[in-house]
Amino acid sequence: MYERIREKLGILADAAKYDVSCSSSGSNRKNENKGIGDAEGTGICHTYTEDGRCVSLLKILLTNHCIFDCAFCVSRRSNDIKRAAFTVEEVVELTMNFYRRNYIEGLFLSSGIFKDADYTMERLVRIVKKLRQEERFNGYIHLKTIPGASDELLREAGMYADRMSINLEMPTETGLKLLAPEKSHAEVKKPLKYIQNNITQFENEKALIKSVPKFVPAGQSTQIVVGATPESDKEILHTANAFYQSFSLKRVYYSGYIPISNDARLPVIGSQPPLIRENRLYQADWLMRFYGFKVQEILNDVHPNLEADVDPKLSWALRNLDQFPVDINTADYYMILRVPGIGVASALKIVQARKFNRLYENHLRKLGIAFRKARHFIRYADSPMQLKEYEAGHIKGLILSESKSKYLSNPNNQLSLF
Amino acid sequence: MELYIFDGSLEGLLTAVFECYQRKSKVVKLVTESLYVPDVFDSGFRVVSDREKGKRVWKGLCKKLGKEWQFRFYKAFLSEQPETFQHLLNFARYIIDQPPGATENFAHPDVLAVSQMAQKVHREKHRMEAFIRFQKTGDGIYYAHIEPDFDVLPLLPEHFQNRYADQRWIIYDLKRKYGLYYDLEKTEEIELDEAPQMSIVNALPADLLDPKEQLYSLLWQEYFKSTNIQARKNTRLHVRHVPRRYWKYLSEKQG
Ligand code: SF4
Question: Which domain of life is it from (chain B) (predicted)?
Fold first, then answer.
């Protein structure tokens, strides 16, 4: 019994897992109709995969049938694999039953393109509409935008989804053309822009009239595959930065390419996915979004790639030693944020606590900063006298020798920040 | 130094703060009755929990503490840790004696300790919100039990009530032997005569379960397996996110 639904779930969850986004945060949907679920606040990881990625959504494809043949994708039409398709009811039932048992925060629904874009998008919309209207489901819904789908369908989708996303896949147009000649960045930009315009329009109207419904309240995101094509980190991060700015994206995801094909254009099966690189890109992304760094400060023509052995914040500090040491008791908050070993939370605590007392080493240690790392870049009330100025290579050597295992032997893919 | 003995309740703790002022005590060491070992040389003062006194102290504190700090105070109290009770007593006295804003002094040992413990309790609450797995029973109630490190049950109703407004549910703390029951209207505390054991995840006997319960927990287990990407396996990171002591909650880890 149940063999069919088990097999479908196996195939269609497996094919969906290469989309790394699993965020369920940033929406503001409340359970106001005594229905089920809410999607407020920061989101919850209900479990973690064995590689440490957050599982918060039921992430599946509606189908893995596809008329396209993108070389980097398991669902490409030339790939000899088992195909399956859910019915609308099956997706709704799975979502509701997982949600009611507190397994998930909601649904992440994507699909291969069968027949054509509108046909596919129309099915996706039918599912989310049924969830919202018939099941009164207020949990989180992340819906894929199918490139080429009509504006009407996108607009309808946006009335039910919390987040929508469409993937750039390769960081540059050249890279994309190499692996998926039928695809282009332009067909990604068009729906991104259309949905963004609608988000702004709905927000403006909502400011005037309270009853205006929500439209993609958690915004849009995209994914860039790293390491399938030869772009530098600079090209990747500059593309990400441009998309953050032009389309007000909530997130850009970086997905280290997992070899799944014998195609000569791609890394061979069995080669290691670039997990350290992926992690460094996320760290650099955080520096742009939360630490006030400009993309050119992190990566530029002189420094086009992130290093494997040090994180991008430390790397920046070592290249800019003239900006240090920073005096913890007097420096501007934004400068304290730039100190390697000090994160946002401890930087805030520092500027609050120093109103009461001058801060000493023992205070700093208790406030939760990575003192052994930070001490090379700061002055505090009882800093030891420093007789000579160290140069970058020496400091880097000291820091690395104290934290070897952490940096070299464990390729994290999620953020253990700075 | 004076020794104060209290009953471990929040009211008792706040009364103890009151008595510090009433009795003009200087340094006070606070212990709970259950941990107090009588000592012939050092007879302690027994705090008698008193609603009025407790209220007065709480009111005074609220004048100096914003909403968030009031909540932190409560969360830290739910840790049930003896050293945290001491920090809370010192913290309350410090806050009452200082002008408003003293909570920002993270260099003060009690401010820091209370905020850190509140953070820990908060994390445990958040973990329960994430790791609880309901099983649907034959009569349509969604049941889960937990053994949290701290007494976080009082922090849970809001979240689960908002989320599962249209289903009845029970969350039961096996360690502290009480639970929450939501009946579609309100959440109440309950005690079960015969609570199941934590060690078994699918703890309810099969005859109590909804006929489809097995299907969905099986589908969930299989779904969990298929989200893995073998080439990325990283057990160390996995265990950092889901410490082993929480695995007992997770049906997907049992397969
Ligand atoms: S269109 Fe999408 S699903 Fe189809 S092959 Fe390309 S990436 Fe894969």
Answer: Bacteria
